[in-house]
Design brief:
The complex is a heterodimer of chains A (about 375) and B (about 210). Helix content of chain A is about 35%, strand content about 25%. Chain A is α/β, with parallel strands linked by helices and about 375 residues long. Classes of the chains: A alpha/beta (about 375), B mainly alpha (about 210).
Chain lengths: ~375, ~210
């Protein structure tokens, strides 16, 4: 088995030059030029149908362009063999697409296996990657995708994308299908992974908050055209036109920031998030995986004790749920959001609970809002 | 009465002959059927012609097919095997083809995106995910083959069709009843085994 060579050890820049892609009479991508710098996370942001996904897929040639060219480290991507090119570029999508007939290990190790790695090398690499995406390897390595929650599957999807150590990662709304609280948790985790790995990442999303949380720079697309490419602060302060102002919402939503309360911004909690303190750790894990959440609110009869995170529960074999409970800041529904967020920021807390008599919602660190405060 | 028929008609050895023919047919037909399935998946423009042709064979009544084959293969096991094979290719070839083409597109897409070649996609993704449908095809083939092999008794192929023939000639209800029921039970048994494997594959490879 021939071992494909590594095309780039490091990305200096990816240059997209006047790229156009048509489908019949529809122009999906229209004369887009932009440059992705080595090591940055560039967001492609825009409403559905704006061409962001198509543009992303032209980079690893899942979509062949009609006009223009794409240079990776100065080389036209059409000069590479597409199969080898794609092995050098990680790819993560919203639907994840783990193969149902393979275990976690086989899913992550598929390309290495085709590349002729030894079984021991594959196992070692898979374990390493599972650690990075905070899934204890011994518990997960032999599971099948069906036995995993959506959040866990997406972690495996990310691990699979990184298995060949690509210096470039393409991500297409990877957290889009997840529960809102879980989405924020995974974004938070992803930021840490990203800092640790130091890759160049192109990330497609339609979620402005996600864009601001994760991106170094943001490119906004509309109807196939690039409208603005800027650092996030510039977008807030200097939107290029009304469309962008509308997207970043800088006019309407935050105008009366001082009047917003915790209950306006919180993500409401429904029944699935609540567990009683006398439950066993295993039953809580099972419940969270079934509901596809990774945060649980622990109650003792009517009293709020704190929260647990699924990741923590996996870390040690301890039947006593109480040992995993974390305390959190608690705000009243009518507390000012400005106050709440600045207190969270000060204490470096990502999660806070909004409670009246009992918890009714969760406040998560909010990038855009805290910038505006 | 059952024991009497079983002994006089040597149902034990006939069962063995019968299952032997079914087994040989299945091996041949699985190899041919899967090959045709993969072939028409690769050459999609031929798929309609070939599937239609197999369909035509399928519409020829079993008895007529056996009779047509006598001038070519004589009587006995040979024409029976040929007829069972011809009959059972369609379900396997068709299910292989449908299984390969109907794999959820997201899996094909991600396989391409992580750098699998078309050939690797076929072997690592399409074929495994097509296995449950393929198993369903083999199950249908088992049932078809049981029927044709039984009819083979008419042209001296041996197997359990023989005693039925005898029963008809002697107008012996007991022989017909016992043998007929036994064939029925065998068919149901084989089908259940097939069903077991199909369910197993579906659990493991189901999408």
């Amino acid at each position: 088995m021939a071992i494909s060579k590594k095309l780039f050890n490091k990305i200096d820049c990816v240059k997209i030059e006047k790229v156009t892609k048509k489908y019949g009479h529809t122009i999906a991508v229209n004369q887009v030029s932009l440059e992705i710098r080595g090591g940055e996370l560039l967001i492609l942001l825009g409403p559905s149908g704006c061409g962001k996904t198509t543009l992303l897929r032209t980079i690893n040639r899942l979509v062949e362009i009609d006009e223009g060219r794409i240079l990776i480290n100065g080389k036209d991507n059409r000069d590479f063999d597409p199969v080898i090119l794609r092995k050098n570029i990680g790819y993560v999508i919203q639907q994840i697409g783990l193969f149902p007939h393979m275990t976690v290990r086989e899913n992550i190790g598929l390309v290495p296996k085709l590349e002729g790695w030894s079984e021991a090398q594959i196992t070692q690499k898979v374990k390493e990657l599972l650690e990075i995406v905070s899934l204890p390897p011994e518990k997960f390595i032999n599971r099948r995708p069906k036995e995993l929650s959506g959040g866990q599957q997406q972690r495996i999807g990310l691990a699979r994308a990184m298995v060949m150590d690509p210096s470039l990662l393409l991500m297409d709304e990877p957290f889009g299908a997840l529960d809102p609280i879980l989405r924020k948790q995974l974004q938070e985790e992803f930021i840490k992974i990203k800092e640790r790995l130091n890759r160049t990442i192109i990330f497609v999303t339609h979620d402005i908050e996600e864009a601001f949380r994760l991106g170094d720079r943001i490119a906004i697309l509309k109807e196939g055209k690039l409208i603005q490419l800027a650092k996030k602060n510039e977008l807030l302060v200097n939107p290029a036109d009304d469309f962008i102002a509308d997207i970043v919402d800088s006019k309407k939503k935050f105008k009366h920031l001082e009047n917003l309360t915790a209950s306006d911004i919180m993500i409401p909690l429904d029944k699935k998030y609540f567990f009683t303190s006398d439950s066993s750790t295993d039953s809580v894990i099972e419940g969270m995986v079934r509901e596809d959440i990774e945060l649980g609110i622990i109650m003792q009869s009517e009293k709020f004790l704190g929260y647990v995170k699924l990741q923590d529960l996996y870390q040690k074999n301890d039947k006593n749920l109480k040992h995993f409970i974390k305390q959190s800041m608690v705000f009243k529904p009518l507390d000012s959001i400005a106050l709440a967020l600045s207190m969270m920021k000060e204490k470096n807390e990502f999660i806070a609970i909004v409670a009246d008599e009992k918890p009714i919602g969760v406040l998560l660190g909010n990038e855009i809002l805290s910038r505006l405060i | 009465m059952i024991l009497y028929v079983w002994k006089t008609q040597q149902l034990g050895i006939k069962t063995f002959e019968h299952l032997y023919m079914v087994f040989i047919t299945l091996i041949i037909v699985i190899v041919i059927g899967i090959s045709i399935g993969i072939f028409i998946y690769k050459k999609q423009n031929l798929s309609n012609i070939i599937l239609n042709f197999l369909n035509v064979i399928e519409t020829v009544p079993e008895l007529a097919l056996l009779v047509i084959l006598i001038p070519l293969f004589g009587i006995g096991i040979k024409p029976t095997l040929v007829a069972s094979v011809l009959y059972s290719i369609l379900p396997i070839a068709r299910n292989t083809y449908v299984g390969l083409t109907n794999v959820d597109f997201q899996y094909i897409e991600i396989a391409r995106a992580i750098g699998l070649s078309d050939k690797e996609i076929l072997w690592k993704v399409r074929i495994p995910l097509a296995l449950p449908l393929l198993a369903a095809g083999i199950r249908i083939a088992i049932v078809f083959t049981m029927g044709v092999v039984t009819l083979g008794g008419l042209i001296a192929a041996g197997g359990l069709g023989g005693p039925i023939q005898t029963g008809i000639h002697l107008y012996d209800k007991n022989i017909i009843l016992v043998t007929g029921l036994w064939i029925g039970i065998l068919a149901v048994l084989l089908d259940s085994i097939g069903n077991f494997f199909e369910t197993l594959l579906r659990k493991r490879y189901g999408q």
